[in-house]
């Protein structure tokens, strides 16, 4: 498995588990300033956790295969990145359109912001998932 | 200039004019920058007008371009479109994070909604402009 594919798997797993935990433990009954504070606290904790886990795991992977890790992206890597990002772009647009619709239905700002966050997370998972699929299928 | 390049120009110019007007009015103190319903009316009006202009433009271009040139997108067209969308993705993701994670602590709902709208418009302009530059420079994917 190529180094870039491993990094994609790693990022996919970390984002999936991290944000599953976020949406699982979020205190949904809380609104207003308290809700925003809860959101900020959880996001800061996630950001710290992501940084630590991804840095350690990526460093270990790079130490195991230093030649792969230092190789610049070739035409295939760039093509895969473009295809996946292009696909995720439309997912994100649709997600944000849904958030606009939600914002006009509810006055709960925290719920809308969590929906925006969910749209971004789903788009990023789609991007990474598409990259993994394209590497697996060998385009 | 190819048919697809012309349609991309049409989208870029119509978006630039429509949303320069929209955000110009908001910066100028229009109530759409502070209240939800004026925002909905202004945005709805601007978006509907832009859509009508694009539909009319497509019709004119279709009538003035030979059918052979209006063929389905080929591999190069698809590659260029993906390149534009990939560039736009990062712009939109940055805008999403700014509006969904950072702005709630400094701004109110309508300002956040307008900023999110600005991020979408900016991303679409990056998408179309990247496509235009790729066509102009003869990028092949």
What does this structure look like?
The complex is a heterodimer of chains A (139) and B (141). With 139 residues, chain A is mainly α. Chain A has one domain (3-137). Chain A is 87% helix and 0% strand. The longest helix of chain A has 33 residues, at 32-64. Chain A starts with a helix and ends with a helix. The mean pLDDT of chain A is 89. Chain B has 141 residues and is mainly alpha-helical. Chains A and B meet through α2, α4 and α5 of A and α3 and α4 of B.
Features:
heterodimer; A: 139 residues; 5 helices; 0% strand; B: mainly alpha
Order of helices and strands of chain A: HHHHH
Most extensive chain-chain interface: A-B, 32 and 29 residues
State the separation between the terminal residues of chain A, measured CA to CA: 14 Å
Structural class of chain B: mainly alpha
**Number of structural units classed as domains of chain A:** 1
The description of the largest β-sheet of chain B is: none
Residue-averaged pLDDT of chain A, rounded? Answer: 89
Looking at the structure, what is the overall shape of chain B? flat
Quick take:
Chain A has helices at 3-25, 32-64, 66-70, 75-105, 109-137. Chain A is mostly helical. By secondary structure, chain B is an all-alpha fold.
Secondary structure: elements and pairs:
The complex is a heterodimer of chains A (139) and B (141).
Chain A: H1 3-25, H2 32-64, H3 66-70, H4 75-105, H5 109-137
Helix pairs in contact in A: 1-2, 1-5, 4-5
Chain B: H1 3-27, H2 36-64, H3 75-102, H4 109-137
